[in-house]
Design brief:
With 581 residues, the protein is an alpha+beta fold. The protein has 3 domains: 197 residues, BirA Bifunctional Protein, domain 2, CATH 3.30.930; 157 residues, YbaK protein, CATH 3.90.960; 91 residues, Rossmann fold, CATH 3.40.50.800. Helices cover 25% and strands 29% of the residues. Helix 2 packs antiparallel against helix 6 and helix 2 crosses helix 11. It is globular and about 95 Å long. The protein starts with 20 loop residues before the first helix and ends with a helix. The protein binds adenosine-5'-triphosphate and magnesium ion.
C-alpha cells in the first residue's frame, strides 16, 4: 500500500486527552480517532491490526471447537426482563425505544440472546456440548470511559458461550477455552497472567481473568514469587508476615498525648476519652501506638442484615471476601442512622465490646488472640484500651477478611506475595444454570427428562486487547508491533522522489516484496526524510527499508524497529531476507 493512497493521519503532538502511551500512540500513528467519549473510529491502519487480532482469535476458537455466529446488537427489553437483568443492570445498559414506544437495549453482553437462541434450537442432549462465539460490538454506558480503547462505551468483544449436559462437560469446555485464551494472548505477543477472580458467589476457581501486565492497569494482580498462585487483589489469600505481627504490650502512658483523661474502669478494658479521634491515623497519634494495636470495627449490611467486621487498624477490610464467606450478594457500609438504631453505637466509635447480642461479629484471623488492643467504645469520643479478644468481646466467626498487602506470604507455600498492575483482557466464567434456569432453557437427557443447560461464558475485549498490546510494545518514538499482528511487515521509504535511480529501485522493491506475499507500506511521499523516519517509528512496522544515496550501487538501508542499529543490504537480497524474518 502506498502511504499517500491510504488514510494514515499521523500527528506530531499528543492529543490533549491522551493519558496513556497506548492512547497517545494509537492516535498519533493514525490508528484511531474519537467520535464521542468512549466511541472510536478504527482508521485503516488500526483496522488492519484489529483484523489480525480477530484472525488469531478465530483460529484458536475454531481449534478449540467453538463455532462462530453473529447475534443482534439490538435486544428487545423482554429478553433482559426474562433473565431479570433489565432491572439490575443499571445505567451501564444503553436503553432506547422504537417508534412505537417499545423498549430495547443495545447489547452489553449476550447471555440472554444466546440462551434464547439455544433454548429454541437445541432440544436434545445429542446436540451437546456446543460452544458458540461471536466477535461483535458491545455497548456499555461506562461511568468513566477512558484511556482510548481501554474503556470504551462502544467496543469490540469476542464472546463465547458453552452449553453442556453435565458439570464435567462444563469443566472440559472451560479448560478448552482457558487453553485457547492462553494461545491467543501468547500469539498477540502479550505478557499476561491468568488469575483467580471473584465469581460473585461462593466457590473455588470457577472464574479466571486474563490480565495483561501493565502499570496503567486498573486491577491488582497478587502472585506468589515462589509458586504459581495468582489471584485478583479482591480475593487474594494471604497470611501476615511474621515480623508484621502486633506485639503485645499496654498503651504506654508516657507515649499518650496530654489531654487523655485518666482511664475509668469498664469491664476488662478501660474507657478513655478520645475527642474527635475517628480515624486510625488520629488514634495512633493520640495514643502513640502503631495501627496494628487498634481494632477497626466496620458496620455492614450484608444482604440487608447488620454485621460488624473486625480487622487490624493497619489492614483493609475486604468486602468481596466477606460476601464469599457468607454466600452473600451484597455488602454495603451501614449508614450513621443505622449504626445508631441497629447497633446502639456511634459512627467513628464502633467497637466489639457490648454490642447487641443479635449482631454477628466477624473477625479477621489476625484479631485472634490480640491483647491490650484499642477498640471503639460505642459512645461518642470514647475508646476502650487494654481490651483482649475473646476475653472482652465475642467473635462469632473468624476468617480471612482483609485485603492482602505488601509483606504478606502465600497461603500455599509461604513464598512472598508480589503485587502487579494488570489490564483485564479476557474473562472465563462458569455460569452453571444461572441463565438457563431463569430463562427456562432446557434440553432432554437420554431418559427423556428435561434439564437446564450447564453454561459457561468467555469474553475477550478485542479492542481493549489492541490497546494493551501497544501499552506493552512501544518506546519513546512510537509503537513496536509484535510479528503476528503488525499491520504491514515492511515500511519502505524512498528518500528523494525526484531521483530516478532511487525511485526505480524503490518501485522495483515494492513490486518484488508484494509478489513475494509480503505486506508493504510504501512511503513515496515528497517529504523530508526526517518526517518519513518519524512516521515509520510512530507506526512501528518490524522492518524499515530505506532507498537512498547508495541506490545506484544496489544497496539499501535496513533497520529493525526493535533495534537501534541499522545495517546495509544488497537490494536483490531483500525479499529473501524479509522471508527469513
Ligand atoms: P471491567 O472490570 O474492566 O469493567 P468487565 O468485568 O465489565 O470488565 P466482562 O463483562 O467480563 O468485563 O467483559 C469481557 C471483556 O470485555 C473484559 O475482560 C474486557 O477485556 C472487555 N471489556 C469490558 N468492558 C470494556 C470496555 N468498556 N471497553 C473495552 N473493553 C471492555
Ligand atoms: Mg465493567
Amino acid at each position: 500500500m502506498r502511504l499517500r493512497h491510504t488514510l494514515i493521519p499521523t500527528l506530531r503532538d499528543d492529543p490533549s486527552d491522551a493519558e496513556t502511551a497506548s492512547h497517545r500512540f494509537m492516535a498519533r500513528a493514525g490508528l484511531i480517532r474519537q467520535l464521542a467519549s468512549g466511541v472510536y473510529t478504527y482508521l485503516p491502519l488500526g483496522y488492519r491490526v484489529l483484523r489480525n487480532v480477530e484472525r488469531i482469535i478465530r483460529e484458536e476458537m475454531e481449534k478449540a471447537g467453538a463455532v462462530e455466529l453473529l447475534l443482534p446488537a439490538l435486544h428487545p427489553a423482554e429478553l433482559w426482563q426474562e433473565s431479570g437483568r433489565w432491572d439490575v443492570y443499571g445505567d451501564e445498559l444503553m436503553r432506547l425505544k422504537d417508534r412505537n414506544g417499545r423498549p430495547f437495549a443495545l447489547g452489553a453482553t449476550h447471555e440472554e440472546a444466546i440462551t434464547s437462541l439455544v433454548r429454541d434450537e437445541v432440544k436434545s442432549y445429542k446436540k451437546l456440548p456446543l460452544t458458540l462465539y461471536q466477535i461483535q460490538t458491545k455497548f456499555r454506558d461506562e461511568r468513566r470511559p477512558r484511556y482510548g480503547l481501554l474503556r470504551g462505551r462502544e467496543f469490540l468483544m469476542k464472546d463465547a458461550y458453552s452449553f453442556d449436559a453435565s458439570q464435567e462437560g462444563l469443566d472440559q469446555s472451560y479448560t478448552r477455552m482457558y487453553d485457547a485464551y492462553t494461545a491467543i494472548f501468547t500469539r498477540c505477543g502479550l505478557k499476561f497472567r491468568a488469575i483467580e477472580a471473584d465469581s460473585g458467589a461462593i466457590g473455588g476457581s470457577d472464574t479466571h481473568e486474563f490480565m495483561a501486565l501493565s502499570d496503567i492497569g486498573e486491577d491488582t494482580i497478587v502472585h506468589c514469587g515462589q509458586c504459581d498462585y495468582a489471584a485478583n487483589l479482591e480475593l487474594a489469600e494471604s497470611v501476615g508476615s511474621v515480623n508484621a505481627k502486633a506485639d503485645a504490650g499496654g498503651v504506654a502512658a508516657d507515649k499518650a498525648e496530654p489531654g487523655a483523661t485518666a482511664p475509668a474502669a469498664f469491664g476488662a478494658g478501660q474507657i478513655v476519652e478520645t475527642p474527635n479521634c475517628r480515624t486510625i491515623a488520629q488514634l495512633t497519634r493520640f495514643f502513640g501506638v502503631g495501627p496494628e494495636r487498634i481494632v477497626k470495627s466496620i458496620a455492614l449490611l450484608i444482604d440487608g442484615r447488620p454485621v460488624v467486621a473486625l480487622v487490624r487498624g493497619d489492614r483493609e477490610l475486604n468486602e468481596t471476601k466477606i460476601k464469599r464467606m457468607l454466600g452473600a450478594t451484597s455488602a454495603e457500609l451501614m449508614s450513621e442512622q443505622d449504626i445508631t438504631d441497629k447497633l446502639g453505637s456511634v459512627a467513628g466509635f464502633i467497637g466489639p465490646v457490648n454490642l447487641p447480642s443479635d449482631i454477628p461479629i466477624m473477625a479477621d484471623e489476625e484479631i485472634r488472640g490480640m491483647r491490650q488492643a484499642i477498640v471503639g467504645a460505642n459512645a461518642a469520643d470514647r475508646h476502650l484500651v487494654d481490651v483482649d479478644a475473646d476475653r472482652d468481646f465475642r467473635i462469632n466467626l473468624y476468617g480471612d477478611l482483609r485485603t492482602a498487602t505488601a509483606g504478606d506470604r502465600c497461603t500455599r507455600c509461604g513464598g512472598e506475595l508480589r503485587f502487579d498492575k494488570g489490564i483485564e483482557v479476557g474473562h472465563v466464567f462458569k455460569l452453571g444454570t444461572k441463565y438457563s434456569e431463569a430463562m427456562r432453557a432446557t434440553y432432554l437427557d437420554d431418559s427423556g427428562k428435561s434439564n437446564p443447560y450447564i453454561m459457561g461464558c468467555y469474553g475477550i475485549g478485542v479492542s481493549r486487547l489492541l490497546a494493551a498490546i501497544v501499552e506493552q510494545h512501544h518506546n519513546d518514538a512510537g509503537i513496536v508491533w509484535p510479528a503476528e499482528i503488525t499491520p504491514y511487515r515492511v515500511h519502505l521509504i524512498v528518500i528523494q522522489t525526484n531521483n530516478t535511480v532511487q525511485m526505480e529501485l524503490a518501485e522495483k522493491l515494492y513490486r518484488d516484496l508484494q509478489n513475494a506475499g509480503c505486506d508493504v507500506l510504501y512511503d513515496d511521499r515528497d517529504d523530508r526524510a526526517g518526517a518519513k523516519f518519524a512516521d515509520a517509528d510512530l507506526i512501528g512496522l518490524p522492518l524499515r527499508v530505506t532507498v537512498g544515496k547508495r541506490a545506484a550501487e544496489g544497496i539499501v538501508e535496513c533497520k529493525r524497529r526493535s533495534e537501534a542499529e541499522s545495517f546495509e543490504l544488497a537490494a536483490d537480497r531483500l525479499t529473501d531476507f524479509v522471508r527469513s524474518m
